[in-house]
Amino acid sequence: MSLNLLSCLSGQNKAEIKWRLGINAPKYYPITIASGSLSNGRKSAPLTTQARVNDGWGQGGLEMSTSYFIPNKLTVKWFSYAEDKFFGGSFKLPEDTLRTLMKQGYLKDKRILLGYAYLYVNMYPQGGVALWAKAPGRRAVEIAHFQAEEIDYDWKSMYPSSMQTTRAEYKAMVMADTPGAEAYIAKHGFSQEPFKTVYRQRYNYTIAIESIPFSQTEFIQFESFNGEMDSMEDEELESNFFKTKAVPKKIFFRWREDMVVYFGDIIFNEEEIFKAFTTISSECGKEPFVLYLKPDFSTGKLGVCLRGYNEETGDPVEVQIEKAGRIGKSSMQPYLNE
């Protein structure tokens, strides 16, 4: 895994090691943590227990406390309501990766050094576990994936002794309170996909605004289906020109033209964008390609396409993204050169 850490941070003050811990799960697969922590043999940070979570893949419900150490171990046991099963495991974390991230941090606007202030742990079907580190509003990096085992656990021990609801009754209540879960599970079942491999597939591509040079592009931020996020500005727009990335879920961008600043954002249709990436990667092979944002100044709308070259013939390849363009938008305001 290439973290593409910022070499420009040498000579800067190192980011302070401090982070808050979050837990979550995919929308239709609610879970409750029975016990768990991140630890390093001397210190530990507990995972939130008793709370039901399913706010979405790659998200984190935050703890109130802050930790100041580099964890090297994750221990967790949880109940999956959709599957009516307990899972658990103890996993060794990539300590060197975490230490590098935490110490180097993330440089914003060339001058503001941000630390990776959050660690997110997400559980998914059949005992899947994922971990991310996040710099607030700027970058989220996948750290590792793990596989837990199904375990036996005393369900009643998770709740007060006065609780009269049975396990079956409580499971049914939680799933009934998860809109859309029944239909989604009927279609997709309890597969670990797309969370384990489909979302994590990486491609060699860049994001560019058509006819707008990087010198006029001020900011591009994208969130990926694999839970990662990245922000590019200034020289990063060129140094990240071709970099392996997962399939984008959302993109926000800002560019300047004729003393006007334009803004836009896109939320991609999952089925369409994955099909488009599969199509162009089959044509381009190992050749890099570009995701073009195509602003139409006459209508204020945004078109999107993937462009590359056939690996064997060298012929140009273009795949249109129709549904993304339908909801694309741009606005403008006077540009002030302070």
What is the structure about, briefly put?
With 338 residues, this protein is an alpha+beta fold.
Structure description:
This protein folds into 2 domains: 182 residues, no CATH class; 133 residues, no CATH class. 16% of the residues lie in helices and 41% in strands. It is built from 6 helices and 23 strands. Strands 2, 3, 4, 6, 7 and 13 form a 6-stranded antiparallel β-sheet that branches. It is globular, with a radius of gyration of 22 Å.
Sequence-ordered SSE layout with sheet pairings:
Blueprint (H helix, E strand, L loop, with lengths): L19 E5 L6 E9 L4 E3 L5 E2 L7 E2 L10 E8 L4 E8 L2 H10 L1 E3 L3 E3 L3 E7 L3 E8 L3 E9 L1 E3 L15 H10 L4 H8 L13 E8 L7 E8 L4 E4 L3 H4 L3 E4 L1 E10 L2 E8 L2 H15 L4 E8 L4 E9 L6 E5 L1 H6 L1 E6 L4
Parallel strand pairs: 1-10, 14-20
Antiparallel strand pairs: 1-5, 2-3, 2-4, 2-6, 6-7, 7-13, 8-9, 10-11, 11-12, 14-17, 15-16, 15-18, 18-19, 19-23, 20-21, 21-22
